[in-house]
Amino acid sequence: MRAVVLDEFGAPEMLRLRDVPTPVPAPGEVVVRVAAVEVSRTRDLGTRSGKHPFSQAVRLPHVLGGHCSGTVVGAGDGVPRDLVGRRVAVMGHHTCGHCASCRSGADEACEGLRLLGIHRWGSYAQYTSMPQECVHPVPDDLDLYDAAAMAATGPVGLTQLRRARLQAGDSIVLPGATGALARTIVALTRRLDVRVIGLSRSVTGRAENLVVLDAGREDLADAILAAAGGPPAAAIDNVCAPDTFERYFPVLAGGARIVVSGAIGHPALPVLNVPARELYSRNLSLLGVRSHSAAVATEFWQLVRDGFRLDAETVRAHPLSDAATVHTKIADGVLTGHNVLVPPTATDRQEVPE
Q1: Spans of the chain, pLDDT less than 50
Q2: Which of 39, 95, 248, 329 is deepest in the core (most CB within 10 A)?
Q3: Does the global pTM surpass 0.85?
């Protein structure tokens, strides 16, 4: 099969398309013919650099790529045979099932968490293998490009919203409003009647329940209050830019929750200046969300079966052979939102020319 292989850490040019052996499913595993794989700044760009915490778990040569979609084409011992031929979304992590966190039902905090594309070869390839519990069958009318994007951001976005404890009529601050996870969160908030005050360095405007403000404006605090109609009940911050945090933090409502995920997309990890006195005196909560539980993943895919979809034209598709170029453009801010790589064998939508 063809795969994009990382032989050494470094620049995007280290990603090279070549022939590698097609995976064979071990007991309890499936092989998926990949239709699309989400390109993740955190998992992929940071890991490729060799300077990211995830890089320490990688053994070269390596194939990146976690959350993806496709069709099950092989099943190992112990896997139901009727899964073969099913269109699926692939969640890019799996838990050990026996640590204290897993036994208590908090499997998102699993001590033995393993990531597809980090601890094992991933999905920048025509085929990839993973434990059976990583795959979720998807509706026949769901575009597989969208399914890959949803796998990457849907369950964790839903987890963030649950931790924020939002109620109908609330407003939230959402830095990095053009990012992939932010766009999924905006779509999910429409089901909750929540107003989103997005912050961005590159885009401003309005759309349905979303107002996007320039994160660099001098009067950002006043602009947030005006757009929200008062102090926001929460912030979901997946960027954690210190200067932006210091300007939205003072205008959050008393008792507000600040939820953080994925703020490790750059090798230079951000450090926030959090005033402890304010956390105490205003009853604020700062919450980290590393991942999502299996239960939330099940809940999210039920929402999809019930009709939840990303906004139209949210996902950009690129040939697998353009992986290095896509990495460069994401790092430079030319590409934002959901970007998926499409292997040459993808058949569920018109094939992207190589």
Answers
A1: 346-354
A2: 39
A3: yes
